[in-house]
Amino acid sequence: MTDSGLKDWYLRYVAALNAHEFDGMDAFIADEVVLNGEPGTRDDVITVQKHDIDAVPDLHWFVQMTALHDSSDLLRRLAA
Known about the structure:
Blueprint: H1 3-18, E1 32-35, E2 38-41, H2 42-55, E3 66-68, E4 75-77
Antiparallel strand pairs: 1-2, 3-4
């Protein structure tokens, strides 16, 4: 994936979060993940995201800056 392709992918993920489009998260979140240092699943991540929105209904993710480190596909979200 190119640097611009990775950035576009990440921005689509954030847009899906903000639109609460959790049915399409398979395009962004792997079946198996590490969640807070423990093995988990995509459904576990979505459960946490939905819980966050239930707790803070106006929660909004935003991308302040994206950074690609060296030539690897590393993307970081830096938020205030």
